[in-house]
């Protein structure tokens, strides 16, 4: 029996589990679909139904927790943005937040992308690597360089982005 047939046998249980952890909404069905897609793409998924069943449940659980984490990060980001908009004086830590936001917006797109995925959206390095279609190590080095560049600009070292050589 192939993995697709085994997954088909598990569908009622997978749907019931998804509904139990996210409620009887469309998102439960989406969760099952995402888990099946991931299982079919995963080269080392279990072959026997006895091993596949708990493995699929873990995939569903992990996908749900990832989604909840992403929603929380988005809510926190939106709350910060709202607070920044509500602040009128631009002093204190709010002023620093505005500086960071302005510096972020001036970064080149490839630097903004990795910072957005990792620091704002809360993606794991592996998720960002998949989105960007690069190895995890590349994401890690880009994040490090991007954070340094953002900090450099916030601290005022990036005001003159086109520096000219000055002769003594």
TrEMBL record:
InterPro entries: RNA_pol_sigma-70-like, RNA_pol_sigma-70_dom, RNA_pol_sigma70_r2, RNA_pol_sigma70_r4_t2, RNA_pol_sigma_r2, RNA_pol_sigma_r3/r4-like, WH-like_DNA-bd_sf. It holds the Pfam family Sigma70_r4_2. Keywords: Sigma factor, Transcription, Transcription regulation. SUPFAM superfamilies: Sigma2 domain of RNA polymerase sigma factors, Sigma3 and sigma4 domains of RNA polymerase sigma factors. The keyword Transmembrane helix does not apply. It comes from the Bacteria. Residues 8-72 form the RNA polymerase sigma-70 region domain. Residues 100-150 form the RNA polymerase sigma factor 70 region 4 type domain. Belongs to the sigma-70 factor family. ECF subfamily. This is RNA polymerase sigma factor. It comes from Nitratireductor kimnyeongensis.
